[in-house]
From TrEMBL:
<comment type="similarity">
    <text>Belongs to the P4HA family.</text>
</comment>
<keyword id="KW-0479">Metal-binding</keyword>
<dbReference type="InterPro" id="IPR005123">
    <property type="entry name" value="Oxoglu/Fe-dep_dioxygenase_dom"/>
</dbReference>
<keyword id="KW-0732">Signal</keyword>
<keyword id="KW-0256">Endoplasmic reticulum</keyword>
<protein>
    <recommendedName>
        <fullName>Prolyl 4-hydroxylase subunit alpha-3</fullName>
        <ecNumber>1.14.11.2</ecNumber>
    </recommendedName>
</protein>
<dbReference type="InterPro" id="IPR011990">
    <property type="entry name" value="TPR-like_helical_dom_sf"/>
</dbReference>
<feature type="domain" description="Fe2OG dioxygenase">
    <location>
        <begin position="338"/>
        <end position="445"/>
    </location>
</feature>
<comment type="subunit">
    <text>Heterotetramer of two alpha-3 chains and two beta chains (the beta chain is the multi-functional PDI).</text>
</comment>
<dbReference type="InterPro" id="IPR059068">
    <property type="entry name" value="TPR_P4H"/>
</dbReference>
<comment type="function">
    <text>Catalyzes the post-translational formation of 4-hydroxyproline in -Xaa-Pro-Gly- sequences in collagens and other proteins.</text>
</comment>
<keyword id="KW-0802">TPR repeat</keyword>
<dbReference type="GO" id="GO:0005788">
    <property type="term" value="C:endoplasmic reticulum lumen"/>
</dbReference>
<keyword id="KW-0223">Dioxygenase</keyword>
<keyword id="KW-0408">Iron</keyword>
<keyword id="KW-0325">Glycoprotein</keyword>
<dbReference type="GO" id="GO:0031418">
    <property type="term" value="F:L-ascorbic acid binding"/>
</dbReference>
Amino acid sequence: MANPLVAFTLIKRLHSEWLNVVYSNEALENAQALRSGYEDKEADLPKLEDLQGAAKGLMRLQDVYALQVTSLVRGRFQRVSNGKPIDIYMPTVSVPLSGDDCFLVGKVAYEQEDYYHSVQWLEESVRLFRGTGGEWSPENEGTLEDALDHLAFSHFKTGNVSYALSLSQELLHYDPMNGRVLQNVEKYEKLLVAASPPRVSGLRRPTTKHVRTRDTYERLCQTQGSQPMHFENPRLFCDYFTNDNPGLLLLPVRREVLSLQPYVVLYHNFITDTETEDVKRIAQQGLTRSVVAAGEKQATADYRISKSAWLKDSAHSIVGKLDQRISMLTGLNVKHPYGEYLQVVNYGIGGHYEPHFDHATSPSSPVFKLKTGNRVATFMIYLSSVEAGGSTAFIYANFSAPVVEKAAIFWWNLHRNGQGDVDTLHAGCPVLIGDKWVANKWIHEYGQEFQHRCSLNPEE
């Protein structure tokens, strides 16, 4: 702008040329074309469910990784340790959130009666809206008044009646004739007079059915695959593995034994870059919301957030090649129906799978529909890397394995006597940064009679 000619043309453009464009006939035609173009593309754009899911994903990351909302709003991923904020991940590009962004997250929590999260996010929304002087932008869904209204009621529900009153009174400055808010003010004042001293229950995180293992699960996720004490076990080792298979003699696989109980192994460089891209590409068209066993049926659930697709051998030659490679490494019969079709899974914003067993724990489980017994083993291929989060946490075994791109992880779900191994309780930690893709191969009991024999000891 030091050039006066450039400065003059910029001033002229902003003062008159831009207005001439905005109010021209061409602008009206373009606006109509834009609207009709939007209607054509609307079906492919994110739905309300996607937006709410993304908001829930942010709250899940906040909880599992103990992230500070005030830091997230500034585009930082920080948690407090010894009273000081520490960065657990430094993004290349930092994207701050607006007051309207925070309002939407808080509103999703509010509508679920989750006031623990709504208070934290709406506090930030109010702060940011106040910072703009309460001005409304065309792209915003919420306003300062909306944020104050939701925040006041959220504080009331958590027992902070005095602050709910203060916020409601502030709201009346913007909307003095709002009958509902006037009634709330009167109600809060009566409560404060009757209560001595005023009751403040504080913020409490909502409970979950997995509360027994939640603390361990989140601690293992926060370590992001680093357990120095666990890996100091001298019985754990790395080697070049052939499984006595002629096909692996010239090119053995790099095997890393992660755990002995349960027996968990990582096979490095199991799949090539080209193969991972092929698997993701052919799975892309069939991706749908992942389901879990619900009695004899299957249904979606909040404790499993991902999309998945099933690939048959006929889908692409790569599927058959992977089956053959898995069979060589494990010595198991993985052909359908002794092995399920390859399941490709993609985890989006905060995508996760809370603690669960891969094997069936109920006789009515859909796992038995193949009539080939229970899932004896799991073989999971990592099709992508992630920058942070997404590790596989084994809850009772007390360790987690990070995502290793192009590697595969294998473990036995059942003891040799056919009983489920409780130490295989595991979880897919939420993806903090990145796009996590895996491919699961579940191998069943039947068909393995000569590959994985029973023991003479019925207790094994």
